[in-house]
């Protein structure tokens, strides 16, 4: 119900999608009521399913917390961290092993989602989201972020983590065999890879450089940034992605940035915390570590290196 995806639930629980479907079917038969409406590529909660989910979720959360308290004598703490899929896969997950080594008494339960975080009715302790802070003023030429960070700001603390800077990225081989890219308008000679969660990214980025995105532009659409990035690696076109997802790209990945990412979006990445747990020592440890890792991003301008690689190739 939280993922609105049997596949997503299966991945989180390390089960097969078939096992999840079977358990839901058994539960529906036991209750004698339908919990989900099933469509070709998605599922939705029925009104009964929504009510049941909201009521049973708190009970399950109480069981989990009671179990954690009973295990408290071991000195271990478990934190649930919610992160967007691309940021988790490209930046956070490769670093978590180091966190575990340094802090073996803190277990991290990582879940991925782009949905607004609901700290009031879910088990999430800490989250990373990208978006606009209430009351912040942004310039109209800044690329839009069509995502809400939280369902309610009541009882939620937010700390700036990273900027959101969109960057065009493509494979070396595609650049080598295609037209030269000198100015932003030259990007229109190539297929542009769009991401569903940031549907205005290309149009807004080009507009910030005084270039209109033609309705006839050659485009391909993907569900998440990491999908577009993989397509770009395969020479399918030029993706536009947040600079942070390029931070750990290796030279062997054969990727370059044909132009620099010099436009900050109308929003940033924030570390969100349940205020009731802000003074929890394990939350403090995780917060300090995430802030430290974010500071390392500024110390290495990976995008500048990938831009220079493109210029060297063109020369």
Structure description:
By secondary structure, this protein is an alpha/beta fold. Helices cover 38% and strands 22% of the residues. It has nine helices and eleven strands. Strands 3, 4, 5, 6, 7, 8, 9, 10 and 11 form a nine-stranded mixed β-sheet that branches. Strand 1 (36-38) and strand 2 (43-45) form a beta hairpin. Helix 1 (6-13) crosses helix 2 (17-31). The chain starts with 5 loop residues before the first helix and ends with a helix. 30% of the residues are buried.
Helix percent band: 25-40%
Rg computed from alpha carbons, rounded to a whole number of angstroms: 22 Å
The biggest beta sheet is recorded as: 9 strands, mixed
Using DSSP, what is the number of strands? Answer: 11
- Which secondary-structure class do the elements indicate? alpha/beta
Order of helices and strands: HHEEHEHEEEHEHEHEEEHH
Helix count from the secondary structure assignment = 9
Give me the secondary-structure topology.
Blueprint: H1 6-13, H2 17-31, E1 36-38, E2 43-45, H3 47-70, E3 77-83, H4 85-102, E4 106-112, E5 126-131, E6 156-171, H5 172-177, E7 192-195, H6 201-208, E8 219-222, H7 225-233, E9 238-242, E10 255-256, E11 264-274, H8 281-299, H9 302-314
Parallel strand pairs: 3-4, 3-5, 7-8, 7-9
Antiparallel strand pairs: 1-2, 5-11, 6-9, 6-10, 6-11
